[in-house]
Amino acid sequence: MKILIATTNKGKLKEFKALLSEINVETLSLDDMEEKIEVEEDKKTFLENAIKKAKEYANFYKLPVIAEDAGLEVEALNNYPGVYSARFYDIDFGGKEEVLTNKDEANIKKLLRLLQGEKNRKARFVSTVVFYFPDDFGLWTEGYCYGTIAEEPKGEKGFGYDPIFIPESYNKTMAEISPEEKNKISHRGKAVRKLIEKLKKVL
Ligand code: IMP
User: Average pLDDT over the chain, rounded to whole?
Assistant: First the structure.
């Protein structure tokens, strides 16, 4: 079976492909699709955004789709950046941040600026994953990874906020651990493993 992973984010895609390698599916990404469509992530929750993406891509490409909306929730920032994680640098919350090299770096810079002097550095990554089979059925799962925000970025692996996220019971950042280890403990790993269990029952 072919499944379209509805993302163009290379970091996410690599993780999805590794996580789904234990079931017999062929994975495609949006970059493999000749005709492009834009789906705006304009909802207030991870679940609504993931459902919107899954349905619109599945109906357009006539393929089963896995869509994810993920992000980082920081306790001291009222759970921001949340659904705005990908474009936090540019939203009207604590001032905008200029993109000097790339968006991930600008997002991290803004988050560290907002947390300067803050003692409560508790945070969690959230991954909400939706599988949608056109005109048939849909299901969703969610995974969390709890941790704290570091004082400065460290590590070159992973993507997004990984260089400043220290998972619970670790003394290094998510960008300092191997991709295999990240998949074992990550929000995405947990959500995808739950999804696989559900899919095994219905497919
Ligand atoms: P999405 O593409 O709307 O789901 O945006 C997710 C954003 O949340 C990414 O651009 C990252 O900034 C952040 N994010 C989600 N998952 C991770 C992760 O596993 N590590 C680091 N950052 C992540």
Answer: 96
